[in-house]
Amino acid sequence: MHLFKFSLLFNFAIFYCLFSNSSLAETVLNYNVNGSNSWYPYSIANNLQEPGILSESIPKILAMAKIKSKVNNFPPKRTNQALKNGDLDFDVVSPSWFAGEEINPQFVQSIPIMPIVENIIVLPENAAKWQSLSAIKGQPIGTVFGYLYKDDADFVRVDFKSERELILALQKGRIEAAISGDYPARYWAKKLDLPISLAAIHSSGDLVIRLRKEHSHLLPSINSAIQTLKQSVEIQRVIDKYTQNMAP
User: Which of 11, 98, 126, 149 has the smallest C-beta neighbourhood within 10 Å, fewest atoms?
Assistant: First the structure.
């Protein structure tokens, strides 16, 4: 009798393990890493050879974690909505973009992938005026449509399509200051041959995977993959590929 019970339990355990592993293998995460179409060097539109830091790094992380995925190409505002209703399973954000650095409890977050900094960007002749973050209070500030800003109740958003458009708007005098990641701002200023200055830091933190909570069981595998790729310097190699010629 005891042997029979043991056999049933053993067979059930094997079936459960096989079923669990099969379910995990069949999980396909829908995700999006795009910011605007000018979010250089994180995501570079229409470039299969050099798609950007995150467009290269995220597939490496998922492959190492043995997680199947499908990449989508949504603009920022649609990405945020798709995450809320479950059409997307994760994206890449920085907690520093949220008030109190708190991501919505609907999500869990991975360990850091890489640092990211946002600055107030201005024309060089206006740099002295914008060295304190408090200078943005109550002012019209250039922003990217659909982007998250931790303190956008403190200033008047003037939305543009992309970081590229922010640089052009500064030069045309449509705005006096804008908020942009330091790398995208430097890249587009150089590309357009329009000088800018990086003034006060608006946010500074790390990019993480923001994963819907129902997939939190996958987080240990994702974190392990990120840690392994960082320790092997693979993620740093990808970062250097896009940023080594972008020094201030």
Answer: 11
- Number of independent structural domains in the chain: 2
Closest C-alpha among 207, 204, 212, 201 to residue 179 = 201
Residue-wise pLDDT for 17-65, tens only, equals 444 444 445 789 999 987 888 999 999 988 889 999 999 999 999 999 9
C-alpha 46/C-alpha 51 separation (Å) is 7
Instruction: Measure the CA–CA gap between 207 and 204, rounded to whole angstroms.
Output: 10
Beta strand pairing call for 197-212 and 107-109: antiparallel
Between helix 219-231 and helix 234-243 the angle, nearest 10°, is 70
Helix residue ranges, H only, 131-181? 163-171
Q: Does residue 182 contact residue 198 with C-beta atoms inside 8 Å? A: yes
Residue 178 inside a domain? The answer is yes
